[in-house]
Every structure is written in structure tokens, then in C-alpha cells.
Amino acid sequence: MISEGHPGDRRVLQQPVAPPITLPATRLLLDSGTIQISKGGSTAGINPQGAVVRSWKVEGRELLFSHPNPENRLRASHPIGPMCGMLYDPVTRERNGLHVIDGVSVKMPLHGGLREENWSQASKRSGDEAVLELSNVPGSPPTEMAKHYPFNYLWRLGVELPTDKKLVWDLSYTGLSEGRKAPVDMGWHLYLPFEQGMKIEGLNGLRYDDLTAWDAPAEGTILGPGAFGDRINRDWQIRLKSGPDGRPRTEFAITYPAAGYSLKMKLLSDRADTMIVWSNPVLGIGDFICPELWRGERNSWKKGTAEQVGFNEKAGLRIELEYVPGKAVAAKG
Fold first, then answer.
1. Global pTM?
2. What is the mean pLDDT of each successive set of 10 residues along the chain, which is 333 residues long?
3. Exposed/middle/buried for 140, CB within 10 Å: 0-12, 13-18, 19+?
4. For the segment 122-142, what is each residue's pLDDT rounded down to a tens digit?
């Protein structure tokens, strides 16, 4: 049986059970609850169920991958938080999600559970921006996440199209537990189309750093130009810090030579220093690649490196995507 979890949370390489299904780039089902925003020739669809960005089109070209079933929140671009990845025992390496909060053992789901929640629409301004909120406060019905994350909080997600070629994704957390600090990591689990020969540019000089790997370089390898390409079945954890100051690399691009465009990415957070890159064609739902952009690291709750956010304090992650058209390059046969 194939697990639906993140491939980095499994220790054994899966065997293919079915060939991947390539979906047309324009095929995407949006249900009636999807919030539509637009700017010039650009449109985006955001579903409050899981705060999932299911579509972003520029000049009619779909730039995101989404599962064709709109009810599937797992295989679409969704928020991560209040932890990244899966918690594991630092001694046995067992990935059980267990953690102790206020003397009580709780089991955290993969990535914390934000994608399992039904968010509310806070506002939609001028047709080019939507804001979603998820809160857990006294007197209100508890969220599902509150069962394993016993804090009061406000999550807010803004999705904006500032120009007809840019999308801005802005996630923030506000602590609302008086006299308490809560561990908070967050990220964006992007799903993009996969193309043979695609590359991630801007990683030159960065270090590969991971617990496990399927088809990746040895831990500590310094990455070269166009680090990702050709081979699809891999799971990398890349530390975005580089240079003598140790600050995170904040800008890079994913290029699609055959399709003739690239996506520039910019991370605006001083703690956004991890990118997970993976793909899994054996799931049989299409060819995709996931560059997960994290403000945190794996097992940070156990390591003690998660940010501790107190009452009325905030943490956030802002990511900008820009579509850059170019000239298509025929694949080498």
C-alpha cells in the first residue's frame, strides 16, 4: 500500500504501481466555493477549504499543478503550519508525530494541519486580492488543529495579484494565548508542473542537507548551477543559507525551457531558509514537482529551534512569484 504522505517521511523507495497520468495544463476543476481574483490577463483561484491556491493563470497558461478533484486538498498548493514536515524521535528516528505540550503527549499530523481546516473569507478587495482567516479563541468553536495544538491564535493568508504577471502569497500567525509562547513554523507547499530538463536556478553554492534521500547527492554537497533537472524521483532538503553572513538566499527561479517560461521566486522572511524539492510519479495523478518553501526546518520542535511566539506577537512568511515569458527550446531527443 502506498502512503499519501510526504516522500521524505518514508524510509524505503516506493515501487511504481501505475504510470503517471499527464494532465493538460489547462484542465482544472474549481468548485463553487473557490474565490476568484484577477488582474489584467491573470487570474487565481483560492479555496477556503484548506486555504488552497488551486489555480494561477497568466495569459491563459496554468502555472500551478492541482489534483483534478477539487476536494483533494493534499495535491494542491497549500499552507504548512504550525510545523514543517513530520516530528520524529531524535534517537530512534521513528516518525510518529508525538510531542509533549504542557505535560500532555499530542500527535501532530504531517505539516501541522492547516490544510485540513476550513478557513473563512475575511475580505476581497478590488477583485485582485483575497484574505482568509483561521482562528482559535475562547468562546468560539474549536478548530480541528486545536485538538493537538492547544493554543489561541489567528492565522491569516492573503493572496494578491499586484500585476498581471505576479502572485503574492502572505501567511501570518498571531499568538493569542496570554502568558504563553507557542512553537510556530510555517511554509508554502507549492505544486508546479514538471518538465524534463527543468532547472532551479540560483542555488549555486548552496549546501544539500537532508535526513534521507531517494536520488540526491551526498549530504553536504555544494550545489552547482541548475541543480534540479532530468531525474524526477528525488527528495532534497536544501538549506538556503550561503555566504559569510549566513543569511538565507531569498531569490531563485524555476525554468521551463520547452514551455518557454520561468517562475521567479522571492522569499521575504529572515527565517525562511529551507526548501524541500521532491516529486513522485508513482502516485499516478500527473507529473508535478513540489518546491516546499519553509520558515523552519524538519523536527524543529524536537530540536528546540522553532520560533516561540507569545501573546500578541506575530510571525510571517511572504512569497512572491513572477511569471517571465521566454522562448521555447525544443527538448533534445
1. 0.82
2. 34 29 34 83 93 94 81 77 84 76 82 89 79 91 87 96 96 96 94 83 76 58 62 64 75 90 90 79 67 87 91 96 82 46
3. exposed
4. 865 668 999 999 999 988 888
For 50, 135, 174, 314, the CA distances from 142, given in Å and listed in that order, are 16, 9, 16, 21
Of 228, 313, 308, 321, whose CA–CA distance to 268 is shortest? 321
> How many residues are there in the chain?
333
Taking Cα atoms as reference points, which of 170, 169, 172 lies closest to residue 153?
172
- Residues 176 and 224: their CA atoms lie apart, in Å, by 44
Nearest-5° Cα angle at 74, 60 to 123: 65
Name the architecture of domain 30-83+112-325.
Distorted Sandwich (2.70)
C-beta separation of 169 from 319 below 8 A? yes
Q: Show me where the domains of the chain are located.
A: 30-83+112-325
